[in-house]
């Protein structure tokens, strides 16, 4: 299996171009993503043919679970598809588990320098996130834990679920402690990604993300979009903001005209390799 190691702001992926998924892809994802014993990555990503779009992206987290969407991986996929001339156009449509996403590439000297993804409208209705409870949006709502802990959360989805908490200082946020507790909270039947957000000003936030099926990552594209939408819904920021993540910055714009969220950021190629399965 030939692969390309790529990342979006340190959120790293093993990317494979294939005709079909290999047998037992979840187990392969666990092996490939494992540090020291495998390549080491946050996810295993496949570029596959598509009947209704230019290509299909499928992403498996490091724990083998499949995610519906990934805002960082889709930029890597678009860059690789363009630079290998699989799709020789700067605009392409990529089918994902969260629907077809239009992507636009900025190219300089034949190389992709930036990528804008139309993430579509955020899904705000509770049952569609999915999250348990009465119908309506989940904005600054108390979430109760078995041991009596209560956290105020804003929840939404971009095809994959996100739970956002506002904190005074993101560097000191208890990501390792609360991340897994929220990921596995019974209110989220498909588990959830968790964003810890510090509001810096009306056009700037700092975010750390505990990703479902991975743990804390250096960046999360859909998580940055979720954090931005939650900040807007809570009245903390404007609709166009910069999201500072440990791995770097993403620009997010929740456009009034079409209600879609646009994610802009880089994608980086690191090396090519071949996976030689020995067991
Ligand atoms: N890093 C991603 C999200 C990857 C999937 C996530 N762990 C999930 O299970 O939903 C991003 O950049 O959006």
Automatic annotation (TrEMBL):
Q: Which UniProt keywords apply?
A: Amino-acid biosynthesis, Cytoplasm, Isomerase, Lysine biosynthesis
EC code: 5.1.1.7
Marked site (Could be important to modulate the pK values of the two catalytic cysteine residues) residue numbers: 162, 211
Q: What class of enzyme is it?
A: isomerase
User: Where along the chain is substrate bound?
Assistant: 11, 61, 71-72, 160, 193, 211-212, 221-222
Annotated metabolic or biological route of this protein: Amino-acid biosynthesis; L-lysine biosynthesis via DAP pathway; DL-2,6-diaminopimelate from LL-2,6-diaminopimelate: step 1/1
- What's the catalysed reaction? (2S,6S)-2,6-diaminopimelate = meso-2,6-diaminopimelate
Q: What does this protein do?
A: Catalyzes the stereoinversion of LL-2,6-diaminopimelate (L,L-DAP) to meso-diaminopimelate (meso-DAP), a precursor of L-lysine and an essential component of the bacterial peptidoglycan.
- Describe the subunit structure: Homodimer.
User: PANTHER family, alphabetically?
Assistant: DIAMINOPIMELATE EPIMERASE, DIAMINOPIMELATE EPIMERASE, CHLOROPLASTIC
Q: Under which name does UniProt file this protein?
A: Diaminopimelate epimerase
The organism named in the record is Ammonifex degensii (strain DSM 10501 / KC4)
Q: Taxonomic classification, please? A: Bacteria, Bacillati, Bacillota, Clostridia, Thermoanaerobacterales
């Amino acid at each position: 299996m030939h692969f390309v190691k790529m990342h979006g702001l340190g959120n790293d992926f093993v990317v494979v171009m294939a005709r079909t998924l290999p047998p037992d892809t979840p187990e392969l994802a666990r092996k490939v993503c494992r540090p020291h014993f495998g390549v080491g990555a946050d996810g295993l990503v496949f570029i596959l043919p598509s009947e209704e779009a230019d290509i299909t992206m499928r992403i498996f987290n490091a724990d083998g679970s499949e995610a519906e969407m990934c805002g960082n991986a889709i930029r890597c996929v678009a860059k690789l598809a363009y630079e290998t001339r699989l799709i020789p156009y700067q605009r392409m449509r990529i089918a994902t588990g969260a629907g077809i996403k239009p992507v636009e590439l900025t190219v300089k000297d034949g190389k992709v320098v930036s990528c804008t993804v139309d993430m579509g409208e955020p899904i705000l209705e509770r049952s569609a996130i999915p999250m348990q409870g009465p119908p309506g949006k989940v904005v600054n709502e108390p979430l109760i834990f078995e041991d009596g802990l209560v956290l105020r959360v804003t929840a939404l989805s971009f095809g994959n679920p996100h739970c956002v908490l506002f904190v005074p200082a993101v560097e000191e946020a208890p990501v390792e402690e609360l991340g897994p507790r929220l990921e596995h909270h019974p209110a989220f039947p498909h588990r959830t990604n968790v964003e810890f957000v510090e509001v810096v000003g009306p056009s700037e936030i700092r975010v750390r993300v505990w990703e479902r099926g991975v743990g804390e990552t250096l960046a999360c594209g859909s998580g940055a979009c979720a954090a931005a939408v939650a900040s807007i819904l809570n009245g903390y920021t404007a609709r166009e903001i910069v999201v500072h993540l440990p791995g770097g910055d993403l620009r997010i714009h929740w456009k009034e005209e079409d209600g879609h969220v646009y994610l802009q950021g880089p994608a980086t190629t690191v090396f090519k390799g071949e996976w030689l399965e020995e067991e």
